Amino acid sequence: DAVAKTFDESTRRVDACTYDEYAKELRLVIAKFAIVKGAKGSRKLVPWWDDEIRRSIQLRQAANRQHRHALKTLGKVPVTLALWEEYRKLKAQTQDIVETKIQAHDCKVMKNIRDGGKNAGEKFWRYIGSLDGKDRAPELLEHDTGYPVQNIEKLLEKQLYSMFGTAHVEVPAEDDVDPSRPMEDVPLSTCIDGNITRVGRVHLDRALARLNGNTAQGLDGIAAKVLKNLRPDSRDQLAYLFSRIACGDEQIPSDWRRGRVTFIPKKGGNKQHLRDYRPLTVTAVAYRLFATILNWRISCWAESNGALTELQNGFRKDRRLDDNLFTLTQCIEVARKEKRNLICCFLDIAKAYDSVPHSSLLRRFRQLNMPDDWVRLIQRLYDGNSVMSTFNDATSADVPVRRGLRQGCPLSPVLYMLYTSGMERTLEQTGVGFTLQHKQHGDVIVRRLPGLAFADDIVLMADSVQDIRLLLLACETAADRLQLQFNASKSAVVQFSGQCEGLGSLTIQSNVLPVDTKYKYLGVTLTSSEDYLAEQYTNLKASALRKRNVLRRRSLWSSDRYAITRELWKAVAVPGLTFANAVTCVPSEIREYLERRQREIGRQALGCHGRVANELIQGDLGWSTFEAREASSKMEYYARLRHMDGDCWARRVFVYIHLQNVQTRWRRRVIRLGTKYGAFAMVAEPTSKKEWVTQVRSQIKTIEAQRWREEMQRHTSMHLYASFKNKIAPITFCGNTLGSRLLIEARGGALRTRLYRRKYDANVTDTRCSACADAEETVSHLLLECPALVPAPRVGTSIDQALGFTEGQNCNITCSKQRLEAWWSIHV
């Protein structure tokens, strides 16, 4: 905020006429507020440390020195004892301050993770890694000899040059303008049709709102948080400068032309070989904002002009990864139900984004009749770029970029999909694929699905070996034209239904494709076994166990076990365990396994023992069951299919299984969940998808709460809880103290009193209160009546107030915790 305010008031910022001048002034302001790091080797401060803690510790240390001096010189006299009490007081104050700071920091971390949305898991694992410090990258080895690399800088430069520095030699077609020609000096603003290059303030605000404040900054040194905090005048000026860059009145900023390549190890690869790393280009944050806005414009144009095919569902508006998974899994079940063949060929394009030639990319855009000012702008964005990299403190020289799309750039996915859209059209033109034939309104409709694409993930589908071979030939021809190479070793042919001969003879670009029984497609492992999701279930159980073990790590919930555990499970674990929940079905035993793991985490968050009823765990944490989550996601996707465009393949498959009455797992599960939760019994039929989903979600919550209350009535020990807890909602008074844990057990009728233990232990015969021995040891007696426990409850306090069922009763809750702690010390 301070940087943004100072920058907004800067006269040099107001006078800036170009983006370079604007960015230069912003860097100068940032430098004024930069925190100077300590000397090399100094210990890194914990994130919650500040001056208040430092001053408190200094006061405590001074009091400790005074006490020791008095003890040494005066002995144990009243003055020494007073100094001792002063030291203890300051020590307790310091501890309270530190705990408050840690709790505030943990809440900030949790909010950052929770606000991450789809990136919450990535943020969480990054936080986990930060707890143990950053590991140094392993020593690199020569690929040929296996000896340690002596000159890492040269190796990095060589690797960068092999990826980006070589360009394909091409002869442009006669009717095409050479896209590699130098840009003319004529401003593009003189030949713009409309305002398609104008960047408005609304577009910039929207892009800034979507920008992750913690994203890595580029080589220009301008952090995302600074841009997100820009004031209105600064934003208006930045939008104006973006417009000048877009229309060509201003050159592409030099900061945007340099990128830093970060090498990320591939899963399952050798971390000592640089070839087993995936390159990610980190560009200037301002460039990413500009590219985001341009991406929206080009994507809108591509959709309205039909530049992309129905086979492609990646990174498109109103398209989802679930669409591909739904289409593929339903086709597998259709083929098996109808006893037909289904052969799938999963293709992997080697270094897909890195292999795109710039000249061919621009030529393809002109073939698609993309507005010429956009083609020129893209050419300017990719002309004259360079990259560098660092690895283990070694820094490479700058390497010019002559091919490839930037990994991590918001614009790259749509550019790649437009570039390869011709491959999908070629597949459609073959006229072969998995056949879906049915009658509709008396007409016979025959559709053939040749495959699906999600950005660079391709799967071909056919009824016979001959047809799959024809589709492979079409892909090979298109890939050769696009100068892309398929990686046969990472591709696979899987027959999900039927028996066909000759699968081992299938090739792509002269390489034999391996025949396998399973393949992980878009995060879901599909197999050719009787249950094609069997391995996915195994992975799901392992993932639930791993997430549970991670959340048991004490360093995660040092300040507030309840809040941290609850939020992390909901924001990080649940999205992973419910991945593709809308289109895949898990058996009841797997769902119950997930429920047990969730209840274990819930008991850890509350700090209660295993005999506390499951309904209390759900009610006091505010978590839904996995079945309710499944019902919500499946009903929402069902509504999506009902309102989906008829040309989408997911909609076509949906219509087919209903008209042909194919009882797939998904269809049966949707009918069962819809019936159970009343989704198909609404009085008034909603008119829109949004209205239908809203009503269904509300109905699911109502039915879930009703079942939760019915289950509570079956537990005799839960009569108090059932009487006062009327909704599934998290509590606000649970902490890390013993009193909190005992209060939770008391709420659920599971406090380990003598009366309670007699139900399970025949050796317990005396049920009188451990503290006063005057009455039976019940929860009501301990909280409201026992005279031996302090502090005494407030006059007029009821049992529901003492147990925390009534809001705004913090004083009563604190009293209850203290009385239970006092009882426990006597009881134990």
Describe the protein:
- The protein is an alpha+beta fold and 828 residues long.
- It has 5 domains: 58 residues; 210 residues, no CATH class; 137 residues, Alpha-Beta Plaits (2-Layer Sandwich), CATH 3.30.70; 179 residues, no CATH class; 77 residues, no CATH class.
- 50% of the residues lie in helices and 9% in strands.
- The chain has 31 helices and 15 strands.
- Strand 7 and strand 8 form a beta hairpin.
- The chain is globular, with a radius of gyration of 32 Å.
Strand content: 5-15%
For the record, give the distance between the C-alpha atoms at the N and C termini, rounded to a whole number.
53 Å
> What is the domain tally?
5
Overall 3D shape:
globular
Put simply, the count of helices is: 31
Structural class by helix and strand composition: alpha+beta
Give a short account of the largest sheet.
5 strands, mixed
Q: Please tell me the overall pLDDT.
A: 88
Q: Ranges with pLDDT <50 over ≥5 residues?
A: 36-43, 169-194
Helix amount, in percent? 40-55%
Radius of gyration: 32 Å
- The overall strand count is 15
InterPro entries: DNA/RNA_pol_sf, RT_dom
Domain Reverse transcriptase: 245-526
GO biological process, one term: DNA biosynthetic process
Organism: Ixodes ricinus
Quick structural gist:
50% of the residues lie in helices and 9% in strands. With 828 residues, it is an alpha+beta fold.
Layout: helices, strands, pairs:
Elements: H1 2-8, H2 11-15, H3 19-32, H4 51-73, H5 78-114, H6 120-131, H7 152-165, H8 201-210, H9 224-228, H10 232-247, H11 254-257, E1 258-265, E2 277-282, H12 285-304, H13 321-337, E3 342-348, H14 358-367, H15 372-382, E4 386-391, E5 394-395, E6 399-400, H16 412-429, E7 434-440, E8 443-449, E9 451-454, E10 457-462, H17 465-482, E11 492-497, E12 507-508, E13 511-512, E14 518-521, E15 524-527, H18 534-551, H19 561-577, H20 588-606, H21 614-621, H22 626-642, H23 649-659, H24 665-676, H25 689-713, H26 719-724, H27 738-747, H28 754-757, H29 779-785, H30 799-802, H31 810-827
Parallel strand pairs: 1-4
Antiparallel strand pairs: 1-2, 3-10, 3-11, 4-5, 4-6, 7-8, 9-10, 12-13, 14-15
Helix pairs in contact: 4-5, 5-6, 5-19, 8-10, 8-12, 13-23, 14-15, 14-16, 16-17, 18-19, 18-20, 19-20, 20-21, 21-25, 22-25, 27-31
